[in-house]
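Structure first, sequence second, as always.
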């Protein structure tokens, strides 16, 4: 539920359907960073954003596991304020545009088990080794998303697979290594709680707050989704003052070469 004026990161954004929906929910105000490590897929993201008239998007090409906020922290420098205190209020002239996101979406790369119904060929690429490999990537991306989101901010983790190794195990790892907690959320879909054990492994009981979406219950593909709050309490007014963030967003977009930041 991103709001106008916030700073939002879509960690695995291409080809952009979720990114453009986020922009619409934000009313094109604030800063939306759409990142993907696949440069080829980013062309589809930019094309979709341009087609739909998105104006608050910055496109980045980085490995989300090591995502750098440096381009955004140094973007906002008002005229005549060189050498100003970078630790000042984010809305103050000469201070960094921002050094943390209010919200992050990690729709992680996965083994795509939940897409086999519409794309049977996906099964040809499936292997237990691939599940184990991509789970390591997912853990890294989710950890970085939590680290890059401010205390009280929200991170959503989702996949289109059923494998607990890529879902509950990833959440369990985040709960163990980062300052965060899983919180419940409502959905109109019929869902099943996350599982707490699989193949001899046991997971934090809080993973039951996640939602498993099964095709036979909803006539859909298969999905997994969890909502996490970073540190402290959830903030009902996540984000800086809208006017200040809008100013920061303008500065970021102007300083990042037509909306794109190279890796």
């Amino acid at each position: 539920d991103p709001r106008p004026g916030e700073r939002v990161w879509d960690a695995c954004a291409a080809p952009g359907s979720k990114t453009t929906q986020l922009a619409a929910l934000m009313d094109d105000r604030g800063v939306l960073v759409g990142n993907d490590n696949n440069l080829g897929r980013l062309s589809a993201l930019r094309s979709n954003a341009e087609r739909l008239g998105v104006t608050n998007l910055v496109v980045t090409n980085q490995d989300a596991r090591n995502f750098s906020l440096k381009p955004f922290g140094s973007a906002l420098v008002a005229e005549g304020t060189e050498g100003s205190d970078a630790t000042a209020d984010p809305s103050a002239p000469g201070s960094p545009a921002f050094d943390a996101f209010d919200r992050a979406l990690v729709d992680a790369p996965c083994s795509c088990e939940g897409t086999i119904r519409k794309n049977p060929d996906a099964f040809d690429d499936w292997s237990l080794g691939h599940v184990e490999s991509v789970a390591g990537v997912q853990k890294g991306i989710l950890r970085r998303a939590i680290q890059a989101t401010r205390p009280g901010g929200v991170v959503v983790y989702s996949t289109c697979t059923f494998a607990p190794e890529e879902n509950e195990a990833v959440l369990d790892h985040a709960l163990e290594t980062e300052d965060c907690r899983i919180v419940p959320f409502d959905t109109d879909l019929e869902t099943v709680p996350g599982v707490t054990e699989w193949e001899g492994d046991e997971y934090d009981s809080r993973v039951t707050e996640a939602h498993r979406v099964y095709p036979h219950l909803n006539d859909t593909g298969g999905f997994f989704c969890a909502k996490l709050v970073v540190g402290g309490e959830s903030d009902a007014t996540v984000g800086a003052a809208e006017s200040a963030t809008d100013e920061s967003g303008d500065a970021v977009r102007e300083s990042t070469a037509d909306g794109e930041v190279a890796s």
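Margin note: The helical segments are 17-25, 39-51, 70-73, 128-147, 168-177, 215-218, 242-255.
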